Each structure stands twice: as structure tokens, then as C-alpha cells.
Amino acid sequence: MRATPETIVPFRAKGFAPRSNPVMGAASIAALVGLWQLGSSLGWISPVFLPAPHEVAGAIYRMAVSGELWRHLSVSLWRIVLGWTLGTVVGVAAGFAMGLFTLARSPMQAFVGILFPVPKIALVPLFIIWFGIDEGSKIATIAIGVFFPTVISTAAGVEAVQKNLIRLGQSFNLSRWSIITKIILPGALPSILAGFRITLSVSILLLVAAEMIGAQEGLGAYIIRAGDLFQTDSLIGGVVILAALGLLFVGLLGLAERRLLRWR
Amino acid sequence: MTPSVHRGALRLASGGAILPDNRPRDRGLALKVDHLSHRYGDLSVLDGIDLAIEPGSVAVLVGPSGCGKSTLLNIIGGLLKPSDGSVSYSGEIAPDCINPFTYVFQDFALLPWRSVGGNVSLVLEDSTLSARERSQRIDEVLALTGLKEFKDAYPGQLSGGMRQRVGISRALSVRPACLLMDEPLSALDAQSRLLLLEEFAQIIDRARTTTVYVTHNLNEAVRLGHQIVVLSRRPGRVKEIIRIDRPITERRATDADMVEIEAHVWDLIRNEAAIADKELGHAGDA
């Protein structure tokens, strides 16, 4: 093939480099809500199946002014904070033990391997028998659900710390404690924080599951009651509040990541 | 970045604070490697190594790939237990020495989440030094290696040469009695390597710390070594020890006798290096 008189070399490295655009993300949600509102206003969507967005907003407003929102939200938040913290503290400790000590490694691997795939929701009735119908079973459900992903992400993070950095600590005679706290912990932190992203969603999921059985208060109980009464606007209002809670957690985690992983 | 390299070197040449003149010149330890052998499972990598390294001298270990140079260094540094034989040392360890056997790593081994100053500080934090003394030592070594202005920079912001300079600063901050350098220049580009080699020559000459230096690069070997220990291919045995008496700072890589020594060392290992290369290739295939 002869190129005459001269041909510009074409650029071929197009694509395969997706970029994030927060404006597009927000616009997509707004467009979806707009379509939903339009469908409802034009009568295409039955209010029994899916109430219009403004009705959902009205339900949330009524819930807020009556004090019901704060009553349910505060109870749910308390359960999540307690359950998530408990599962996280024990999970991080167990993950470190699994990643660091031969004695803990194989038993923990077997334990996690067997119990991690078990759907934790199936254990709620058992937890009610073990820990009572009140707070104990709900917090235990969330804690157990958070524990397993935390163990896995922490152990993976510990194992992923470059061996040459541990060797550096050993070659400079750093104490075991210094190696763990100054080399392994910061090295494993990206993986641990990535695990938090999963466990915060898991904790919301399990909160609702636990509150659907034998709870008088909490967002899960509110949603199930609204469903029983066919109050779909309140039901979806509860779901919107759960989604907002999830967004809040992700935002807080993003802040923590930016602060703790500044070096990246 | 390059000008700081020269500034560091000049500061060093004009007398850094890290090694005041009243300190004994040879502060290193004498090392003795006694009939040392090592095996990884069935694979014998070192066989009957005997070696004596004088205090304050530089022993460079060279040999074909896989001959056990780094294994020997790690045994000397106490990071690996030998299968047979032993390594012993004698001499006085200065009271200000925090870590007698100190490594400089090929891959720098810097904590990416700590600044330059923080990386040096890491190895001093378990010592009995006060915060003021620690900060003083950090400033001294960073001034010596021309990194003072980069104290707050993170490793990810530095070039390879600068990162290794942090590795050197960290090693010097503990005032070692024996420096163990595992191919410290091999991860660098050719220009950084040349610049840092000259700095090493000055630092090593001034510190007079016993140094064991592993390299593939024969030019580095003749530039820095008081004795060049040539190992045979696996299992590594001492094939020949070449002594160079001329002071390190008075050597030029282009000097006729240096070129001659380099050619002689290459003659010693050329054939074995070719065979070792094929052997390693087969091991890789397997």
C-alpha cells in the first residue's frame, strides 16, 4: 500500500478509560424521579402499586413533623452503630489474627469458610432464641453479618502488605508491636476500609431484616407495618430514608478514606 | 531534582555533621563467615563459604545469577538461618549505634504513607532517643544526602534515585556498624545509578563502616570494593577474592588498573554466567 502524498497517522488508543461524572450521576437520578412523577401524573402508574414522588415526600414530611421519623431512625441508628461497631472490632481483631498467626489461621479459615456463605437472615429466629426478642438479637444479627466480610477484608489486607516492608521492620529490629501498628495496620488499611464499604450496606440490610421480626420501633418495623396497611407512600418513604442513610454512611466513609489514605 | 544531588554530595565532601572528626575512623565490625552452606529444600545454593571482612572495609559479592549472593547477605544480616556454618563478628559497637547490621534494599522498602522524614523516623522510634535527638538525627542524615528540602514529601513524589537516597538516609540514621547493601542501584536508571554510585563512594569512605555490597554490576564492584568476592554459579563457592588497596575516593572507573580488574572479574564469571542463565531458564520452564 502506498500513501501519497502523505497521510496523518490515525489515533487508535480510543476508549477503555471511563471517567466518573458526579453531575451525570445526579442528573440520572433526577431524570428517573422526573419520569416517575410524569408517569404518576399522567395516570400511567397506579398509586396503589407506586405512589407519586410528591406523595412519598409528603409521607416523609408527615413522619418528620409527627416525631415518628426521629423515633424510628434513632432506634435503628443505635442498633446499627452498636452492631456494626461490635462486628467490626471483633472482625478486625480476628482478621489480624488470621493474617498474622499460624495458630489462628487455619481454624479461622475453616470457621469463616463454613459460616460466611450462610445467609444471616436465616439465623434471625435462632438469635431471637439465643439473645431474646429485644435488642440482643437485632444487634447480634448485624454484628455477625458485619463480622465475616470484615474478617475477610482485614485478613486479605494484612496478607497483601508487601513482605519487603515487614522485612524492613525486622532488619531494623523494630518490635513486633511497632511492625504491626506502623507497617501492617497502615498497609492493610485500604483493604479494611474497602471492607467497611460492604459492611455498612450489609448492616442496613440486616437491620431491616431483624426489625421485621418482633420489633415495635425502627425503620424496618415501620416499613413492614406500612406494607401491612397498604400505605405504599409510607413504605417507600421508609425505603428512601434507608437509601439516604446508606448515602450518609458512604459519604462519611469517603471522608475517612480521604483523610486516612491521603498518601495515595 | 538533579541539583540537589550535587548539593548533597558537596555537603558530604565538606564534612557532614553525622560523623564528627573525633569519632574513630574505622567504626565497623570485623566479620567472619565460617564454612557456611545453605540449602532451600534439596537445592543447594551456598557451599562451604569462608570469608573474612576487615573492620571498615567494603566486601563486594559478585557472581552469576542465582549463585547465592543475596542469600549470603541475608545470612550475614541475620534474616536467614544458614543450613551449616556460621557468621560471627568482633569489634566494638559504638554506643550511638541503634541497629548494628543495617540494610539498604534494592527496592528501597519505603512506607508510602510516611513522608521522607517519617520513613527515617520509623527506624528511630523504638530507640531510647528523645524526640529532639531523633529529629536532630533525621535532619543530619537528610542534609547529608541532599534531601533536607524533601523532608515532608512522600515517596510517591520522588524519583527512584531520591527514594534510594531516603533508604541510605534511613540506614545512616541508626549509625550502623555494618551496612548490608543488596543491589542498591539496580532498580535505578543509568544516570541516577552513576550519580548515586559517586555518592555511595563518598559516604562509604567517610563512614568507614564495614560494608557488604551485593551487585551484578562489575563497575560498581571495582569502584567500591576493598575486596571483590567472586562466587561460582550455584551452589555458590568462593572462586576468587580480589583485593583493591587504592582508597575508594581516589578511584575512577576509567583508570587502566580498574578497567583491568573489571575485565579479570568478568573473565572469571562470564562462562558461568552464561551457563547459570540457561539453568535458570530451564528452571523457569519447569
TrEMBL record, chain A:
GO cellular component term of the entry, any: plasma membrane
Membrane topology designation: Multi-pass membrane protein
InterPro entries, A to Z: MetI-like (IPR000515), MetI-like_sf (IPR035906)
Tagged with keyword Membrane: yes
Pfam families, per database record: BPD_transp_1 (PF00528)
Main localization category: membrane
GO biological process: alkanesulfonate transmembrane transport
Transmembrane residue ranges: 21-39, 77-103, 110-133, 139-162, 235-256
Record's keyword annotation contains Membrane: yes
UniProt entry keywords in alphabetical sequence: Cell membrane, Membrane, Transmembrane, Transmembrane helix, Transport
Cell location: Cell membrane
Family annotation (PROSITE patterns): ABC_TM1 (PS50928)
Family: Belongs to the binding-protein-dependent transport system permease family.
Biological role stated in the UniProt entry: Probably part of an ABC transporter complex. Probably responsible for the translocation of the substrate across the membrane.
Name of this chain's protein: NitT/TauT family transport system permease protein
Organism the protein comes from: Chelatococcus asaccharovorans
TrEMBL record, chain B:
GO molecular function: ATP binding; ATP hydrolysis activity
Species of the source: Chelatococcus asaccharovorans
Residues annotated as domain ABC transporter: 31-258
Gene3D superfamilies referenced in this protein's UniProt entry, alphabetically: P-loop containing nucleotide triphosphate hydrolases
Keyword ATP-binding: yes
Keyword Electron transport: no
Keyword line: ATP-binding, Nucleotide-binding, Transport
Protein known as: NitT/TauT family transport system ATP-binding protein
UniProt family annotation: Belongs to the ABC transporter superfamily.
Superkingdom as given in the UniProt entry: Bacteria
